[in-house]
Structure formats: C-alpha cells, structure tokens
Amino acid sequence: MTHFSTYHARTAAGVMPAPSRLAFTCVALTALLLGPAASAQTAAPVSPASTSMSSGSTPPSSVQQTAPPPAPPPEKIEPVDTPQGAVGPTSAAPEVTAFDIAVRAPAEVQELLEKHLELQRYRAVTDLDEAELARLIVLAERNVRNLVGTLGYFSPDIRITREGGVNEHPVIVVAVDPGQATNIGPVAITFAGDIAVSPDADATAQRTEIERDWRLPTGLRFTQDAWSSAKTQALRQLVARRYPAGKLAGSLADVDAPGRIASLRVDLDSGPLYRLGPMQVSGVERYDPALVPRLARLNQGDIYDLNQLVQAQQRLAASGYFDSAYVFINPENDPLAVPVQVQVREAKLQKVVLGVGMTTDSGPRASVEHTHHRVPGIGWRAVTKLQLEKKSPFVQTEWTSIPDEANWRWGVLGRVERINDNELITQAQRLRFGRSQAGDRIDRNIYVQYDRANVQGAGLLGNSAADTGDGSALTANYVWTGRYFDSLPFPAKGYALGFELGAGTTLGKDRQPFTRTVGRWMGIKPLERGRIAMRAEAGAVLARDTANIPATQLFRTGGDNTVRGYGYRDIGIKLANGVIGPGRYLAVGSVEWQRPITLKGRPSEFEHTVFIDAGAVADKPQDLSPSFGIGTGVRWRSPIGPLQIDLAYGLKVRQARLHISVGFVF
Fold it and tell me: What's the pLDDT at 96?
C-alpha cells in the first residue's frame, strides 16, 4: 500500500510557521481521498521534536500532539445537488470547474501535486463563495507539505495564492520550492523469531543477505516509495526461504528535517522454521499417481524454500503431462511438517503437432509429431516424428518410462534418416536402448546403440568404405551435460560443458574395436556493454585405419551453429577424388561479441554481433587445418527463443553465406 504523511508543528496560536523539525505519521492513500477534515482526523498523535514514519503491526512511537488541529472546512463544501456530482477523485477533470489550479514546481514535484493534490477534488463544487475558497487555500498547505514530504523534501517553501479578479474565473497557484532532499542516516534492521536465535549457518546467511541487500543504505536519498520498496524487498527475502510466515513487525523512519537526515529502523519477525510435509495432489486421473511426486522432487523433511517450489511447478508444467500446475503451502499448518499442495490440470492423452520452418543449412522443412503420453500396456510415453527437408529428412520414434524415485527413465529410440552431402548420400539407421536422467542443471545418459550407415552417390568412385563411412557398429555410451547459466534460453552469463564417452566394435566380417570421445564447452562473460560468447568442441575416434566405422560416428562440420561462412557439413576430409568425406578428429571454436541495440536511449530486444568461427576435421591430429569464417549479425529475443540472423564470409571458400536459426543450442 502506498502511504503519504501528515505532520504537525508546534504553534502558539494555531498558525503553522515554517517548520524547524517536523513530526508526522504515515496515513494510507485512501485517507487523502476523504478530504482535509478526514486527513486531519486520521493523523496519529505525534511529537514536534522529530519526524517519524511507522508501519507494520506495531503502532507508531508513543508521543504527544502539541499543535492544535486545523479548523474543519465548511460543511457547504460538499453539496448534494450540484450538477457535477459533488466531490470527485483528485484526478477528476469536470466539464464545469469552480477554479483552475496551476502548479509551479520542479518536474518531479509538479507531477506528484497535479496527480494527488486535494484541491483537485473541489473543482467540481460550483457554488463555492470567496470565503470558502480562501479557507480551502489555507488548508491546502498541509496537504502540499505532506505530498512533498513523500519525495524526501521536509523543509519546502510553499506559497499558495489566488489569481484573478472578483468576477473572473479564479486560478489557485501552488508554488513550491522543495529545498534540499533528505538523505538516509543510520539504518537498523532487527530480527525476531527463529532466524534471530538459530545456530544454523543458513539462518545466519539469510540474515546477512537481508542486511547486505537492503535498498536504502546510508547516504541515499529518502523517498516514501523507496522506503516502502526497501521494506517489501526485505520481507520478500525473509519469507522466500525457511520462514513463509515471516512478517514485518514494525518499522520507523525518524526524520530530522533541519538536518535533512532520516534514521531508519525495520523489525522483522521470522516466526518458526518450516519443513515440508507430505504431498497432497489433486487433479490426477489418467496418469500414474507416482508421476507428480517424482517430477516435483520435493522431499518430506526438507526446509521450506520458495525457489524449490517454483522449480517443482516448472518441472510439472514442462513435462508435457500437464497443461498447468500450481505448487504451494499453507503457512497456517504445522510448521514441522507443512503439507505441500499440488494442483494440476492434465494434458490430453494424445496430441499431434504440425510444423513448418526453414534454416539456411537445410532449407524449408515440414514436420508432423504424434505424442501418446501413456501407451496402453506399459504406460510409457511415445513420441514419433516425421520431418521432411532437403538435406537430412528423418523419421524417429522415442519411448520413455516415467521417472523413478532417483529421476532416471528407461528409454528406447529408433531413427532412420537420409543425409545428403552432395556427392555422398548416407542412408542411416540407429537403434538405442538405455537410461537417462534430466536434472535442473545436469543431464546424464547411459545407453547401448546400434548404428548402420549405407553410403551411396557419385563420390564413392575410387574411395573405400572406411573413407566414406560405410559400415555398422555397436557401442556403449555415457553422456554428461552441465549447464550453469543465469537464465535460459536467454543467458547473460555463465557456462556449460559436456562430454561423450563411447566404446564399441564395428560389425560385419572384419570387426574392429574403437572408442569415440567428444568434449564441448560454452562460456558467456558479461561486459560493461554487452557480452562475449565463446564455444569450443573437440572430438576423436580412435581405431585402426581399416576399421569401417559408420559415418554417423565420425565427424563433419560447418553450418549455422558450427562454422558460419560454410555450408552444412562442408568441412571434412578431402578424399582422393576431391569429394568431402567424414574424419576421425574434430576441432571447432568461436568467439562472438554481442551488444544490445538501443532504441530511444534504452536497450531493445535486439542485439548486434560480430564473430569469428574456426573448424577443422582430419584423420590425424597433426593434419587439422582450420577453416575460418568471420561475420556480423543480429539477435532477437523472440517468444520461441533467440532468433539468429548472420552474414558470414568463409575465408577458405571465399564466399559469403546467410545463416538463420532459432533457439539456444548446447
């Protein structure tokens, strides 16, 4: 709630002089709308010795009123039968006005007074006589002083005059020189409840965070909005972790108007420590009842953390099983085991998604995807997708179980694709079986995989099966990925890394063992203006030269998300007949400077980038010779993820290419 201030000064005969030190107490904004009389009556007793602002469940300091209250306005000010409907809100703009108002003050003060000045309410009272208008002008000074005080000006020079002759439409001029603003002096934040006595290191850290993040430190300018915002932020930090029943027990702003210093005190009461109790789920009918607690991953006995509840809610909503999810607790329940309430609305059992798109790597594409969330008989989810495009059309089906208590899922994947590398066309099949674990930051996959690559095309002439990647293999694999960005899919800082380890054997008459290793890294470092995005990838396949390793286990690079300035998979091994084939070693790197584009002096949803990419593929590490691409582009924070439009020049091919892609890839 927004608060304004009413204040009084010591007087000898009821006339308010220029204040030396002012005393006031917060009054709700709604009190301003009740008129001068109500404002005077709402003000709590205060002392003329200091200026105090208090809020919370405790009353203001116990001080005494020493100034007589002002005389109430005449009853005639609120007529019943005026055509304009009597008194309206301060923002009213009646067609017929009893007087006009002109505010002469600095822009900040002028805007506040024009919006909230009580005189605005009486412009619709058309039968005011000169005496009544004069009394309103006298009473307006207190209102102006209160409003200006909310901006931190407690010694303003206020002059309210009437302009215009007796028979002319009157104009009330409010001239204000606010003087110097009040700054923050000493700040005291006190704690009560469990957070004040707990020996737990987390409680100590929470107290430290609240004190460190206090938004009105000594030396800053005091305003009512900043004071309210600072208290709200402190309370938000208190209740976000461990103490959902925490409250603001009291607060005081003690203002020395002549010294222009505001001393602040905030009292926070944490209440008891809360721990999570049993989960109570509603809305689940068609899916396994164990699905919600396994996706939410909230353990009974854990200390309450709002962020954990939000993450659980996001996991449920992003799982695909539910159209909506709501996770919350009721602090009025037992703090030692507060029940976790989960309300979900289930998604339909089956859905079909049609899609169209385009990339500069593969050109236009169309897709159809069918999802069955609970296959009869086994209860697994099946996702089947057909995608048609020029370079790499495919059909794939993936079946996964619901997660177990450790968040591992069983899964089966089958994929058939056609990879068009111009002179070489690879008909590839893949079958995978294993387990996967998707966490908030870390993903793990363990699986056995069968690969088959049948290579055809004019590029086969004069090349062996080992050179072109024609063959089949069976491998065991482990994949680990960790993402440590501040936010996705629009990270501003952080890093991610991942690696793949595989070992297996080729199949057929001449079986040969081999290993495959891939490492990837991405880092984003913020700058004073913009950021630097860097990425690197390296891979190696170790085997005998004669091993017929399938092309899907070897390396080629180039394209939208690898080395820009080159076509899709255009960087590889140059074979004997001049055709580009796959290789056993890979190295890719990129550095990109991303800067926000400002519109009217403010950062927009667009960014400008300049970059340099490099990539190489070879059959021996010493033969790695990088192909460089340089360019520039723009980024747009679209609703479906980052849209990237880049114009890159490949230094080796001496050709410029346009690259367009959507989404954050790692």
Answer: 66
Instruction: Give Dmax over CA atoms of the chain in angstroms.
Output: 114
- Sign of the CA dihedral with 454 first, then 459, 461, and 464 last: negative
Two tokens at 80? 């019943």
What is each CA distance from 550 to 40, 514, 572, 579, 582, in whole angstroms? 87, 11, 15, 17, 10
Q: What stretch of H or E contains 322? A: strand 322-329
Q: How many Cβ atoms from other residues are within 10 Å of residue 351's Cβ?
A: 13
Tokens of 402: 């619901």
Determine how many CB atoms are found less than 10 A away from the CB of residue 415: 17
Question: Which residue carries 């108007």 as its tokens?
Answer: 257
- Cα separation values, 207 from 34, 309, 480, Å: 40, 21, 37
Residue 158: name the closest of 142, 182, 171 by CA.
Answer: 142
Give the residue-averaged pLDDT of 471-495.
94
Q: For residues 648 and 458, give the distance between their C-alpha atoms in angstroms, rounded to a whole number.
A: 30
For residue 426, give both structure tokens. 């690879």
* DSSP tag of 294: H
Does the pLDDT of residue 92 top 60, yes or no? no
Q: What HEC string does 69-120 produce? A: CCCCCCHHHCCCCCCCCCCCCCCCCCCCCCCEEEEECCHHHHHHHHHHCHHH
pLDDT digits (tens, 9 = 90+) for 258-282: 889 999 999 999 999 999 999 999 9
Contact by Cβ (8 Å): 105, 47: no
Helices 130-149 & 107-116, crossing angle to 10 degrees? 130
Burial of 129 (0-12, 13-18, 19+ CB in 10 A): exposed
* Beta bridge mates, 5: 26
The burial class, CB within 10 Å (0-12 / 13-18 / 19+), for 14 is: exposed
Q: Is the pLDDT of residue 73 over 80?
A: no
What is the per-residue pLDDT across 149-197, written as a single tens digit (0 to 9) for each?
889 888 899 998 888 776 778 888 999 998 889 999 999 999 999 999 9
Number of other CB atoms surrounding residue 15 within 10 Å: 8
**527 φ, ψ (degrees, to nearest 5):** -115, 175
What do you get for the CA distance between the two ends of the chain, in Å? Answer: 45
